[in-house]
Amino acid sequence: xxxxxxxxxxxxxxxxxxxxxxxxSTFYRWRRAAEVPCERVRRDGELTExxxxxxxxxxxxxxxxxxxAVLKREGVHVGRKRVERLMREADLAGISxxxxxxxxxxxxxxxxxxxxxxxxxxxxxNRLWVTDLTMITTGEGPLWLSAIRDAFSxxxxxxxxxxRADADLVLSSLEYALASREVNPGQLVHHADHGCQYTSxxxxxxxxxxxxxxxxxxxxDSYDNAxxxxxxxxxxxxxxxxxxxxxxxxxxxxxxxxxxxxxxxRRIQKRLGYxxxxxxEEQHYADQATxxxxxxxxxxxxxxx
Length: 305
Hints:
This protein is 48% helix and 12% strand. It is α/β, with parallel strands linked by helices. β1 and β2 form a beta hairpin. The longest helix is centred in the C-terminal third of the chain and has 28 residues, at 277-304.
């Protein structure tokens, strides 16, 4: 109503209100509310700006649960429903994943047993790695992506790309993972599907040399390698969808910025207590050090007596 008189200043207030059968007290209450918004309206405006910033920093990925979690981490006390409402009013929304995957089976290959049995949990880092291949379309042709994900923290511990989906690609990602992580022989399971790249002599021999137990689920079954399939859904949704990569180098750069620059270090996850994979691992090691120090302190008197 107040906008009516702003847009049409020639209108007289009292006659117009009588014509519209609106009490003058009601109009002036509306005008005061517009000029001096109540505390809740002002707070909604402030929260909306914070929500916009968080949503933008995530690349438009975060929906209301993660936005709410980030606000909580920043010490902002606000209800989940309020965040949902403000995002809806601001036309902000997260994005949902789609399932994709690419591997084919070698019928003559010797298969490793399924040591995971769809239980994608681990008590500590470097106890269970899951891996798979997927394809990204570029103007130069397909770019194949191989990645290894730690089941404990869901961190991408290694990834490599190539124009060819061969055993060399998956071996390269494994070598990178072994170089960047501390792996104790006999403690780690490497889980893949029956794809010919993962049953190759090159890869299976390297796993044996490193003291890693090979495990395999079936090809084309999203449940048998669900944690790896889930990574592809996330990457395709949050990094690839909506982009047209002219070259493989362009796609590689996007993957680097997403996986190393955002996913591992900043993308919070509900299953990790709304921490990022790196934060989750850091918290694990900090808790482990605290426990070890406490155990040492309890044993100290016995050692000195």
